[in-house]
């Protein structure tokens, strides 16, 4: 039996889909076992970046500690070249546990490698950060280039990669994260070689554990109240021979809040010696994934580096070109000591069983620049670029449409089209913003921090609504199950951060929370409201209501609101991650920051990379991104849905998904393991499994909410008898007659306020936290309900990749500048 769009009661909603074979039966009406698979690769002809290549060995790493250990070993054995490109690269990022109080830093690993191999050449490319973000890229350049002096030869080159977005370039970033060793081994994923990423499966909150010091004691969600000794740190902005000796001896980067590019007239407070106070403050643990690729697809990752490297800062002259171990060919010259690279030779050796396609988000401007500055020999193998590459979004769309049992997503963001059925239409955010006043917390901080007016003035799409199609595609795939007319189990599980990295009194963070909750819950076509619309449509269709289709597409059709939000849990599970610790006599908690950008479908296919679910990453015209789509040819058969019937799975995807679940369920790190979920790990598509996950997450949530009144939640603390939806600052009491004063009081009982840390903030029930199992909690879907926390930053900016707070003196100066302009 073949089911096509015309036979589906959802009508033309799915006309754009290729008809799919639902069931093939023999003469006895028994279903044949299917061994063939759909084509999930992105095949866009000559404009795509890379074809899928088979014969790769792919190894996943689900913690920074494991990834860094393997990377250090690979760097130590490098023979000719090391390519490093990240959004953020810190020379003093911790790579191994410290011994005798000394961290093993990225600087140490690279210095040792060039000292042991006189032929080795290292090329490092961080993003050239823009206001207000501080990534210490200039420090990275200064310190890594100083390795040349210590090695006695020129062996390290650093160039800062500027954004090459198609519009609003100052807002966007070079966001790819990868390392290539000898053009044969590639590491790709979400982990930058920078602060905070060194973590393991225990998600330890102790800031000073494993020798963490300086900015490796990382928590972007709380003020740093401890201090380092000035003799422990260096300021590379004032680098000299003495500083180099201190770096070589083990010093760390000083936190720097000084002069920012383009704002040189603004006074700067200079270096800061602050760090977390490990006696009272928790670090923020990190959840992420990287993969090691050995085989043909490593060539494509290396080629991507060469193209990006060559596109930065050239002018045409005669010059030599670096090849692997130092051979040269004629070409052009660059500014300063920057070297022009050429493509590696085409791969010819297979090492494993994985098919891998290297995918990019790449603006047209970036692609044309890469092409323009390729060597003449390499350009002969390239097509003149036309248009952007948005291959990661297309790959995710392919997987979502072809999913049969379940989808698992871990992502740093979920900001997607939530307004109309066609999320990619050119709808403006101003079309959906009401005159509702700002929430009291938002009003209290309005005008502080980065100036909203500045982002809107500089943006060419200041009020553009989120429009990537991930939300729409997920909703439609769930809708197919709901409308199928036969019982079909299908489920989507999404694990997200509690809130974007940063403090909840930062306007950009509050605005990101606003758009996230609109995308997930409150928007008319949010993910959950799309599910509710399909549930209602099926009810209307079954009752032969003629206009049943209207509820699926009409923004003004509100009949779906009759559907209880809890009914969505049959199809969607939304999770956060959290841990707790006892420091002295106080209990503390912090979110486990989900920085991962991974999608796994049916234990068959996986996408791992740098791309977030937001317009910056998905549209292709903004942030540059790199990801890999992996389909293992090692097929296995497991009963993944508890039906007693086996389904085809693929080894890599299943191994990765099981590793992630065992980690967040506390099994891997043996931290209060959720033993009741061990069967869920084996059978992810069984309804009993996702219901068991929801049960554990709900129970954990209740324990955390009873212990900590300040964490994001559905209802305000103590409002059980008269429930009130929790504000963006959960300690805010919306019933107070003076909202501004209530917001001020609430701010003092939130972790972003320094006074918060003067005393214990846990409740008596904190002793019950021993009952927490694993690290999963339920995402509070009613948090901020009824509030307007849209601070009116340009929507193209608010989905910031890694937000940082603008120093107070900068925001004051910008506000003063605006006042002068208004006066003029």
UniProtKB/TrEMBL annotation:
It catalyses: a 1,2-diacyl-sn-glycero-3-phosphocholine + H2O = a 1,2-diacyl-sn-glycero-3-phosphate + choline + H(+). Keywords: Hydrolase, Lipid metabolism, Repeat. The keyword ATP-binding does not apply. InterPro entries: PLD-like_dom, PLipase_D/transphosphatidylase, PLipase_D_fam. GO terms for molecular function: phospholipase D activity. Residues 170-197, 590-617 form the PLD phosphodiesterase domain. GO terms for biological process: phospholipid catabolic process. It comes from the Bacteria. Residues 800-824 are annotated as: Disordered. The keyword Lipid metabolism applies. This is Phospholipase D/transphosphatidylase.
